[in-house]
Amino acid sequence: MSNINTNNKTKTNIAVLVSGRGSNLQAIIDNIGNKNIENATIKVVISDVADAYALERAKKHGIDAIFIDPAGFEDVSGYEQELLKVLANYDTELIVLAGYMRIVGKVVISAYKNCILNIHPTLLPSFKGLHSHKQTLNYGVKVSGCTVHFVDEGMDTGPIILQSCVPVLENDTEDSLSERILEQEHKIYPLSIKLFIEGKLKVEGRIVSVLK
Ligand code: GAR
């Protein structure tokens, strides 16, 4: 059994990893800004994509924005060592993956056990990996949603923190479904981060309990 985030510091330092437009990053920035999430600061936003719009969002809010080019390293482990250096430079305690389209490898996971969160736009364990909305529509499920989970060494397999359901409508396209799911993502991701920072998440094996 392990209690998460038992550090006694006043503010938890967050690094957000992104690859794209960063609407979840924006929701987190807004929730810190309006004090729904207290005692947290986003120290750095890191992208593996040079022109990710999320980097612009970070800069607009005075947050350091860094592009690390995976192509500049011989292998994944080299890239992850560099990532670890940057994370350490910013005294990162919590890593938040927000539309980061790369698998986090052993190097980072073992350094940040139960301190990496991810959001995925399906009700896991259904439709892991890429093209989630296409997978959802092709399978014909009537309910989908989104999942926030701790990151482990599998792909989208870590212990589940929160989920939210969204109906799949008959005339849904990938865009319309994605839009409705995103509205829920922007609620449950900030809430999960808040619970983490308040030390209210307890992990026992696969089971995450929310402490009162
Ligand atoms: C979100 O829908 C997120 O759930 C998904 O990428 C989108 C990023 O949007 N993540 C994954 O599919 C990870 N497997 P955003 O850049 O606007 O936050």
Describe the structure using short key phrases.
Rossmann fold; 212 residues; single chain; alpha/beta; binds glycinamide ribonucleotide; 3-stranded antiparallel beta sheet; globular
Structure commentary:
The protein has a single domain, classed as Formyl transferase, N-terminal domain (Rossmann fold, 3-Layer(aba) Sandwich). With 212 residues, the protein is α/β, with parallel strands linked by helices. The two termini are 17 Å apart. The chain is globular, with a radius of gyration of 17 Å. The longest helix is centred in the C-terminal third of the chain and has 24 residues. It contains 6 helices and 10 strands, in the order E-E-H-E-H-E-H-E-H-E-H-E-E-H-E-E. Helix 1 packs parallel to helix 6. The strands form 2 sheets. Strands 4-3-2-5-6-7-8 form a 7-stranded mixed β-sheet, covered by helices on one side. Strand 9 and strand 10 form a beta hairpin. The mean pLDDT is 96. Glycinamide ribonucleotide (GAR) binds next to helix 1, strand 6 and helix 6.
Q: What is the tally of beta strands? A: 10
**CATH fold category name:** Rossmann fold
CATH class: Alpha Beta
Strand order, main sheet: write it out. 4-3-2-5-6-7-8
The multimeric state of the shown protein is: single chain
Major β-sheet profile = 7 strands, mixed
Distinct ligands, ions and cofactors found in the model: glycinamide ribonucleotide
Q: State the separation between the terminal residues, measured CA to CA.
A: 17 Å
Strand-residue proportion: 25-35%
The value of Rg in angstroms is 17 Å
Number of domains: 1
